[in-house]
Design brief:
Strand content: 15-25%
CATH topology of the largest domain: Transferase(Phosphotransferase), domain 1
Strand order of the largest sheet: 1-5-6-4-3-2
Largest sheet: 6 strands, antiparallel
CATH class of the largest domain: Mainly Alpha
Mean pLDDT: 91
Radius of gyration: 20 Å
Number of strands: 11
Low-confidence stretches: none
Number of domains: 2
Length: about 250
């Protein structure tokens, strides 16, 4: 077992070790369990969110063992980097890796559970949320702040931003952090970063309008590229889905 624990939690090392070793039989299942598993655990007055990443395939067992940091390690390190840059994310607690013989086995990322009011995903399905446009514009300013700080959040998608109302001063928190680059954000990279967020043209219009003001660019230029990138992503997404469905179909009758 390999682990790195936040200094404020080192006094709980034995407890953290125990919950990882008994992950499958303790805690409370939380959220979508399709790809990775999430469970909640109580620790004194805190609730911990433990993410168990799906076991990698044979190739990635070698890659994660010898050549690349695990998803759990990247999540922990990126969370700490975001905190340094004053970007909202649940407090990182620890990451664990358990090897299987000489190969990489499983990894776990632990953070403090953050109770949000909504996620960005709800903005894509409920247009009657109070102060809807105000929240969407505030989210756009939050994304602009990420870009100004050189953060390219590659999984900038509907379920990965938690929103707290905070008396109208909206606070945003990133989750699912293992895919992120810290780099100079060109105009094209900035606009492409919005591509996964929505299929709704009305939302693109609002975000384009707000972002154009922030970067002092022509609205039409921002909107046209943002809408183009959105459509490109949707076409690619559905194309990949169709291919996967065909592969599953043929495997079924192989």
């Amino acid at each position: 077992m390999r682990k790195v624990i936040n200094s404020t939690y080192t006094k709980h090392t034995k407890t953290l070790d125990d919950l990882i070793l008994n992950y499958e039989t303790r805690g409370e299942a939380f959220g979508n369990q399709d790809r990775n598993s999430l469970r909640l655990f109580k620790l004194e007055d805190k609730t911990l969110n433990v993410k168990s990443f799906k076991k990698p395939n044979v190739v990635n067992k070698v890659v994660y063992k010898f050549f690349r940091k695990s998803k759990a390690q990247r999540s922990f390190e990126y969370a700490n980097k975001l905190k340094e840059l004053s970007v909202g994310t649940p407090e990182p607690v620890a990451f664990y890796e358990i090897n299987s013989g000489i190969l990489f086995g499983k990894s776990y990322y632990i953070s403090e559970q953050l109770n949000d009011d909504i996620t960005y995903r709800e903005l894509t399905s409920d247009f009657n949320i109070p102060n809807y446009e105000e929240i969407l514009r505030a989210f756009t300013r939050f994304t602009f702040d990420l870009h100004e700080k050189g953060i390219n959040f590659l999984d900038h998608s509907p379920g990965n931003t938690l929103i707290k109302y905070n008396n109208g001063d909206y606070k945003f928190y990133l989750v699912d952090l293992n895919r992120m680059n810290f780099e100079n954000m060109t105009f094209e990279k900035r606009i492409k970063n919005f591509a996964k967020l929505t299929i709704h043209k009305s939302m693109i219009e609002i975000m384009s309008d707000e972002y154009a003001k922030l970067i002092n660019e022509d609205y039409e230029k921002v909107f046209n590229l943002m809408w183009h990138e959105t459509q490109e992503f949707q076409e690619s997404f559905h194309r990949r889905r169709r291919i996967k469905q065909k592969i599953k179909f043929w495997k079924k009758y192989d």
